[in-house]
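Can anyone check this?
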Amino acid sequence: MRLFLIIIGAILLGSIPFGVVVARVRGVDLKKVGSGNIGATNVLRTMGKTPALITLAGDVLKGAIPVLAAKYLLDDLTFEGIVGLCAVLGHNFSLFLRFRGGKGVATSIGVLLVYSPLAAVVTILIWVAVIVITRYSSMGALVSFGLLPLSLYLVDYTKEKMIVSFMITALLMIRHVDNIHRLIRGKEPKIGERT
């Protein structure tokens, strides 16, 4: 029963579209500006740094909080991973946006910060490094999460965590298919390019 309730909570919390809420406060329909994505990168492009930071913090917390609850109430790596994946799925297919949502990068980071802090730090460092070098947010996500299973294997290996890392990576790659196509065509906007 506890697992069921925490899963429901993870999906509901994950479904809260913080970018949409922040944009609405400013009178902006986030789905109709910039890339149309609900995440912090599109908020940064269309509204600036402060709204983007608020969105980023909200999206990270909605990944971290359910896993933290599972950690203390269930104390089982498999269940913690399932709860984290549910939070990411809630973000990617939001109940409040008719099953549309974001890419899941910040929410996945939030999950990892609790589920595997060392892997989270490595992923964040790679993400930031790739963004600094390329100025592509999507490239940072693709490279850092593409390497997540390897990073986790090297710094915090357990069988349960490896399975969850592959699933997080798969979800993120699926949500970035359009970005991959734009990167190949040279059409992907860079960080700092306002739309």
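Reply from J.R.: I decoded it. The mean pLDDT is 94.
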